[in-house]
Amino acid sequence: MLNVYLSGEIHTDWREQITKGAQGLNVTFNSPVTDHAASDDCGVAILGAEDNKYWHDHKGAMVNAIRTRKGIADADIVVVRFGDKYKQWNAAFDAGYAAALGKSLIILQQPDHDHALKEVDAAALAVARDPAQVVEILRYVLDGSLPA
């Protein structure tokens, strides 16, 4: 069984494309909470309200970090997606954390991000341009087969 952690942007269906494409492969997937409101508010929902937005966000970040660290630590492969919207500093942090742990890292990004992510890409074992390429990498890792 290959354990894959899917990190990064939450505004497109890339995770669903990968999990659907990998059906039939011996793979299990994990990811951060992708419900933006739930992710933002988990800290105050569990640990209590905060009047100051900084501490509200800080509590959420700390609680989410528990899930993220566990998911990355348990993963055989970490896929980090950088999307077109927003600055995804958390995705870059996840990629760095995975690299520091020696995890096999696949970056999923478009060519217009190549320059900005050159250091992240240098730490990766593959830079894919679409979710189908990630699925083909997983298939190759598991059974050595190439795309038809």
General description of the model:
- The protein has 6 helices and 5 strands; from the N terminus they run βαβααβαβαβα.
- It has a domain at 2-32 and 75-143: Rossmann fold.
- It has a 5-stranded parallel β-sheet with strand order 2-1-3-4-5, with helices on both faces.
- The chain is of the alpha/beta class and 148 residues long.
- It is globular and about 55 Å long.
- The protein has helices at 14-21, 36-47, 53-74, 89-100, 118-123, 131-143; strands spanning 2-8, 27-30, 77-81, 104-108, 126-128.
- The mean pLDDT is 96.
- The longest helix has 22 residues, at 53-74.
Order of helices and strands: EHEHHEHEHEH
Number of strands: 5
Give the number of helices: 6
**Mind summarizing the main beta sheet?**
5 strands, parallel
Strand order in the sheet with the most strands: 2-1-3-4-5
What is the compact description of this entry?
It contains 6 helices and 5 strands. By secondary structure, the protein is of the alpha/beta class. The protein has a domain at 2-32 and 75-143: Rossmann fold.
Provide keyphrases for this structure:
alpha/beta; 49% helix; globular; 5-stranded parallel beta sheet; 148 residues
What is the topology?
Elements lengths: L1 E7 L5 H8 L5 E4 L5 H12 L5 H22 L2 E5 L7 H12 L3 E5 L9 H6 L2 E3 L2 H13 L5
Parallel strand pairs: 1-2, 1-3, 3-4, 4-5
Helix pairs in contact: 1-6, 2-3
